[in-house]
Every structure is written in C-alpha cells, then in structure tokens.
Amino acid sequence: MTRRSGNGSKIDGADLTLGILALVAAAGYLYETAQIPESLLEDSVGARGVPLAIGWVMAALGALLCVRGLIASRNGEPSKPSSDGQPVSATERLSAALRPHLQAIGLLAILAAYVALLPDAGYVASTALLIGGVAWFSGGARSWRLAAIAIAGSVFLWAMFDPMLSIPLPAGTWWESR
Amino acid sequence: MEPLGHAAHALFNSWAIPGALAGVLWGILGGALPGISPSIAMALLLPLTYGMEPVTAIVLLASVYVGAEYGGSIPAILIRTPGTNSASATVIDGYEMARQGRAGEALGISLIAGLVGGLFGLVVLVAATKPLAMVALAFTPPAYFALGILGLSVVAGLSGGSLIKGLLAAAIGLVLATAGPDPMTGVPRFTFGEPDLLAGIKPLLVMMGLFAVTEMLVQIGEPPWAKANAADARLKLPDLKMMKRLAKPTAIGSVIGTFEGVTPGAGGTIAAFMAYSEAKRWSSAPEEFGKGSPEGVAAPECANNVVTATALVPLLSLGIPGSNSAAVLLGGFLVHGLQPGPMLFEKAPEVVYGLYGGLLIANIAMVVIGLVILTPCIWLVNRPKPWLIAFVLALVVTGVFSVHQSVFEVGLVLGVGVLGYILRACKVPPLPMVLGVVLGFMIESNYRRSLLLSGGDHSIFYLDKVSLGLLLAAAALATYSLWREFGERVQRKRVEAAAT
Fold first, then answer.
1. Contacts of B40 (CB under 8 A, 6+ apart)
2. What pLDDT is attached to residue A24?
3. ipTM computed for the complex
C-alpha cells in the first residue's frame, strides 16, 4: 500500500527485478517500433522517431535500475526491511510475502473468467457470478445471502445502465440461441 | 461580471447543481470507505459522464473530490483507518479525540476546517488560474513540448521518491500513448492487428485500471478494517471559542495547502502532514498534539481541502494534472473533447466558470450533507470488505463496458490494473504513468510540429526563450530530485551505521 508505507526510495531487490523487466519491455517495444510501416507523408522524425527515443530512454532507465540493484546487493543492503524485528523463518517470510500476490492472482483469474463469459452468458448472469465469486473469494461467508446479494446487485446494475441510462449490455449468445 | 454571467448560465441551464450535490454525496460515501481514494471514487463515475453535458460532468467529478476529502476523515477519526491518503495526518489527533469520547467534536472540526479550506482554495483557484493561462496563451509548439517535458519531470521527481522509478513510470505512460494512429501521418502503431486499438488507448481506460483495479488487487491481500461504533459519533460543530482557537492552524493549513496544491506531484497528503507539523510548531499548546488536540485535526483537514481546489490551478491553466484526482478530472475533460490549458478559457468559458460555481456549491453542500450523512457512512464502513471489493469491480467492468460496448476494453483495463499492481509492488508511483498517457500526444505532436517549423533543426527548442526556460527548469528539477535522493541515502547509511 502506498498509503501508509509510501513510495520510499529505499533500494531493495525489487530494483533489479524491475530493471530487468524494463529492459525486456524496452527490447520488445523497440522491436515493435521497427515494424511500423513508413508513410508517404513522413516528416523528418517519422512515425518511428518518438517511439524509438522512448524505447531507448526506457532501456537506459532499466539499466540504471539494474546497476543500482546490483550495487545494493554487493553492499549487502537488505533486500526487504525486517517488519517487526522478530526472528522469522525464511519459509514463513516467503509464505507471508507471497500470500497477497496469490490472492491478487486468484482475483484476476475470476476477472479473466468474467471477460471470457460476458459475451456468451450475458451481463446479468456473468456479473452475478462475478460479484458472488469475488465476495466469496475475498472471504465472504458461503450462504444463500451471498447468492441473493450477488443476483440482486447484478440486476440492480443492469437496471441502472440498460433501461435507465439506455446503455445496452450484452444479453448473452447462449440465451439468444434458445 | 462576464465570468459571473458564465457561471450562472452554466449552473442554472444544466444539471450542474444536482451534479454538485450528488458528487459530494458520492464523494463522502466513497471517501469514508478505506481503500476508495478520491481518484477511485471519481474514476468509478467517469464512464457515466459520457452522456452528460460537459459542465455537469466536470462539476460532478470535482464535487466528488471535495466530498471525498471530508469522507476520508470519518474512518480516520472513528476507527484509526484513513479513508483517503490525505486523511492520514488526521488519524493522529482525530482518533485520540475519539478515544476520549470526542469523536463528534473531531468530525465537526474536520467539516468546518474543510469548508474554510475549500473556500480559501477556491479563491486562490479563481485568482491564479486565468493569469497563468494568459501567460500560457503565448506558448509556441516548442514551448508546449517543453511544458510537457517539465510536467513529466516535476511529477516523476516529486510524486514517488525515486526519480528513476518516476521517469520509468512516465516512459511506460508514453509507451501506452504511442499506441494508435501516428499524430502526423496517421500510420497505425502498436495495434497488433486489433481494431479496438486503432484509435489508441483512451486515458479513461488507463485511469480505471490503474486506480480502481489495482487498488482492489491490493485490497484483497490486506486485513479487514475495524468496525465503527455509531453510538460514539454525534457530530458537534465547533463553537465560537473553539473557532478562535482553530483560526491559526486553519490559516497555516490554508497557506501550506495553497503551496502544495499548485505544485504538481505534491498533493494533499504532503500538505496535510506539513500543516500538522507547522500547526504544532506554532501552537501555544504543542504538548497537546498527539493527545487529542483539535488544532491537530483542523490544520491537516483544512490543508487537504485547500488542495482540492488549488490542485486544479496547473490543470486548468497549463493542462498539467498535479495529482491523481486532477488526472481523473482531466479524463473527464478529454471525454467531452475539451483540452484543459490556456485555450479552455476561450473555447469553453462556461465550463471553467461553471466549475468555479460548482465548487462553491459543493463546499457548502459538504457541510449540509456532512451533518446528516454520518450514520449512513458508519453503516457503509461496517459492511464486510469482500462486498466492497466485489461491487467496486462490478461497477468498474460495467462502467468500462458501457463506454463502447467493448469486451476488449474491459480486458485492457484489467491488463492495466495488473501492470499497476506490479509497478506498485516495485514502489513505482502511478501518477507519472497517467501523466505520460495524457501528455504523450501533446509532447509528440508539438515536438514534430516544432521540427517541421524549423526544418528539422533542434536549436528551435533553445532559441525559443519559453521553451528554453521550461527545459532548464525540468533539468534543474531532475538534478534536485537526484541530489535529494542521494542525500537521503547517505543519511540512511549514517543512521544504520550509528545503530550498529
């Protein structure tokens, strides 16, 4: 959370990872830049000019982050600040560090399933599944209330957007073909 | 008198007044929910503004910002959990007051200090924006290019803590901005054969992903917040004696909020903490700070409400959003085909003056609604967190889909949310990325237009005095950020060495 921890500049292992990711992204971006077709209306910079500059700046920043991360690790700076000073085993620390990321991945999987389901299952059914699925996955108790609130919430949102604001939401190909 | 006429016409010939009231209500409720920042509360409404008149949409969004700053203080005072980042400083004395059974008094101080701050900020906004915009009217394409570069470097240098990470975020934003048609030749770039990318990536989608989806991905891994007790809170407005006592911290909050608000990248959180610290320094009872001092609530609450208006100065005059919320408001302008900056006063004066009038109404409405909304807020804060995450996500996907009825765009928003999550895990500030997306077109088109004018000669950027000044300012700021970062590192090493 940036709210309380802030975006401090403390050097940690994330610098190296971020630097490598930036270098890979810059390489991919520069490759794609090279694929941009030339135009007959080309000016002195061209359609590739600015993306090329951005790609190289990104690569340079990635390299700087890598160097900073490597210097930090050589100087023996801690990769993660200790949280409370209590002795914690490496496995426990890893497990605690990974838990929120795994939960985020789970949430993302539900959202991805929603995107895949939306055109076929339609808005009301897929949104009810989304609300119920996310609430349950986030720790909501599995009960008839969960299902009822999910369905009611989905119908409410549909009613707000579709009939009230006249914004068409997908009815779902599964139901149309029947 | 002409501006007043514009404001009155805009407000009384549109739905701007109901928009202000609805915005404040939504803002207070959203701000009261920990995890829903003002920018998220605004972003959730952004897709709904498509069908509105521009002035109604802008007033609605700006009013959400005003309401959210007060809303954020409610859980800060009642459950020691700031609803918004800028309410973090309010926790210190607000929660102490609540522990002493003075929660209602603290909430009343927050409300009145917020009103004073909001009105003071509005005066600064009205006084400062047009003169600054008039200066910017003389800008040439090289100056606009340099302004974009300065905007990116200011925000990259000040909003994060690490200049390299800030610049990287800005570069990622520029990468996203280059997707779509080339601004000069129209050649499609980075579209990967996807028709939905042919028109480029809309800033709206980046903001929804970066603010709302990323926050929910973070929230799911965070522990639930405490429950608020409705019996603890009977809102009590400060009496005359208390108002006299609060005059000094409110004045301090006003000055600091003005300075921090007009500085892109600084924002309400820094303003609130600085105001708290200065109010303590100048107080006749500094020993009470941290133990339930009313002054410790008034100063930060006033400062962060000043910022809600003064953060709009660089946005309206130069087109540079200095905070996340200002960036979402910029998204609102772009949705309606309006580009904030010097020409806005010429092209859509009714929107600018309507916004001023709307902010005035929003600040007054904040007090009226704030007096009656406390019980629903406490009910909302006490809802289980899983439902909050589920409904926010449902609202995000529905809102995004409603814009172009595109499932691809929903997927794109989720993708940006994941990118935001990774960047946040690596402590990369998000604001420079948003700025990169919204300023990318301006930077590239003015850079290339300048070179067309000069026949490809780059000396145009330093022969134009305004451009040279802005580029020098950007370089000076980058140097200052690096120097500050280096200084902090040296100091940290000294502290660590002293500890061992």
1. B30, B211, B212, B215, B392
2. 97
3. 0.85
Residues, chain A, total? 178
Q: Which amino acid is at B328?
A: V
CB contact under 8 A, A14 and B418: no
pLDDT in tens, A14-55: 789 999 999 999 999 999 999 998 887 778 888 999 999 999
CB nearest B174 (choices: A54, A99, A170): A54
pLDDT in tens, B205-255: 898 898 889 989 998 988 877 777 666 667 788 999 999 999 999 999 999
Residue of B339, B384, B300, B345 whose CA lies nearest to B84:
B300
Distance CA A56, CA A30 (A): 8
Strand partners, B188: B181
Beta bridge partners of A71: none
β-bridge pairing B188-189 and B180-181: antiparallel
Q: What angle do CA A174, A176, A177 make, to 5 degrees?
A: 70
Beta bridge partners of B180: B189
Nearest to A43 among B184, B402, B424 (CB): B184
The pLDDT tens digits for B101-140 are: 888 899 999 999 999 999 999 999 999 988 888 887 778 8
Contact B426 A17 (CB under 8 A): yes
How far from B242 is each of B70, B109, B238, B301, B363, CA to CA, in Å?
Answer: 19, 9, 6, 16, 21
pLDDT value at position A4?
40
Please answer whether residues B271 and B303 qualify as being in contact, where contact means their C-beta atoms are separated by less than 8 angstroms.
Answer: yes
List all residues 6 or more positions away from B469 whose beta carbon is below 8 Å from its beta carbon.
B146
C-alpha span between B454 and B165 (Å, rounded): 34
CB spacing of B402 vs A36 below 8 angstroms: no
Distance CA B53, CA B65 (A): 19
CB A27 within 8 A of CB B180: no
pLDDT at B328 over 50: yes
